[in-house]
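wait is this the right file?? whatever heres the structure
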């Protein structure tokens, strides 16, 4: 049975971790989020991508929301040069800085390529030495050592069968159909590779500790992991109003790494505008809310799209809202 100590794949909730690694590199002076990606990844300017910045990618405004089908070959994870060539050859579907279009997979691979050149270290190395180890965490990794792969909780497709419309929507968002993506997630190549947008392995206890550090301004138990300004920049909304995300098909607020709460209904309940976090396939929720001094880590391995969770999950979020009101 699962416990708060069971290691689980965060899927897209990993994007918050990747975002904070990039903010850490900016804090250290290795790069600026306003750098052009092409300044760190030569050739990325191909097909009119020269003006795309790191910030555009982190806020889902780069115009390159999906990877080509051939990118979902797990053997590619052992060939980062070929992955980078796929990134260079991406063709944008919109100009950088326009309305958001959720980048389910592409952004993480772009950040990995940038980090290696700007800092001389991979995202995995920066996460381990500058974040995971100072926080004293057992699990918080982009992938795991092969010896640990059997310990990771397996993901299972649950819920009702997807109709044509929903199945097409999920394929458009992910770049590959739902079922095959889930089966890939249990493959050892997936679990041991680096997929920065989708394979951070962590326990509920450890991801909660990570968010508590952010909630406390970048310091935990006397250990400073991020400067306070770094955390403020990471959770600051790039644009205050809600904008319609053209891939997710719903209004969203993004910072450079996080999905943000709103003054109305949001992923984190009603009227929690300072909440920040990220969701992952399909009902993983990780977030913090400074107004309630609250951290939530809801990690699951049953992966429905259509199912009874569409009733119970909102009830759970509403219950958290009722049980943990704003302070004072």
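ok assuming it is, sequence goes like this
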């Amino acid at each position: 049975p699962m416990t708060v100590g069971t290691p689980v794949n965060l899927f897209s909730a990993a994007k918050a971790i990747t975002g904070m690694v990039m903010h850490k590199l900016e804090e250290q002076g290795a790069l600026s989020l306003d750098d052009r990606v092409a300044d760190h990844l030569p050739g990325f300017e191909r097909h009119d991508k020269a003006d795309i910045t790191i910030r555009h990618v982190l806020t889902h405004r780069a115009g390159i929301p999906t990877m080509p089908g051939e990118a979902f070959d797990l053997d590619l994870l052992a060939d980062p040069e070929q992955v980078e060539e796929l990134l260079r050859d991406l063709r944008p579907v919109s100009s950088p800085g326009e309305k958001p279009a959720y980048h389910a997979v592409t952004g993480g691979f772009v950040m990995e390529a940038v980090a290696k050149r700007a800092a001389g270290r991979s995202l995995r190395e920066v996460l381990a030495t500058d974040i995971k180890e100072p926080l004293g965490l057992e699990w918080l990794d982009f992938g795991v050592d092969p010896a640990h792969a059997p310990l990771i909780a397996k993901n299972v497709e649950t819920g009702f069968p997807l109709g044509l419309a929903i199945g097409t929507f999920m394929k458009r968002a992910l770049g590959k159909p739902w079922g095959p993506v889930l089966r890939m997630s249990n493959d050892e190549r997936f679990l041991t590779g680096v997929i920065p947008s989708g394979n951070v392995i962590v326990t509920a206890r450890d991801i909660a500790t990570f968010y508590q550090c952010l909630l406390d301004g970048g310091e935990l138990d006397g250990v400073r992991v991020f400067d306070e300004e770094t955390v403020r920049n990471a959770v600051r909304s790039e644009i205050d109003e809600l904008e319609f995300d053209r891939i997710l098909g719903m209004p969203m607020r993004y910072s450079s790494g996080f999905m943000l709460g709103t003054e109305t209904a949001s992923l984190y309940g009603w009227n929690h505008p300072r909440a920040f976090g990220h969701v992952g396939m399909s009902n993983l929720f990780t977030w913090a809310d400074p107004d309630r001094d609250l951290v939530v880590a809801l990690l699951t391995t049953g992966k429905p799209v259509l199912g009874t969770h569409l009733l119970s999950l909102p009830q759970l979020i509403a219950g958290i809202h009722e049980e943990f009101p704003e302070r004072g």
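The two ends are 38 Å apart (CA to CA). so i think its the right one actually
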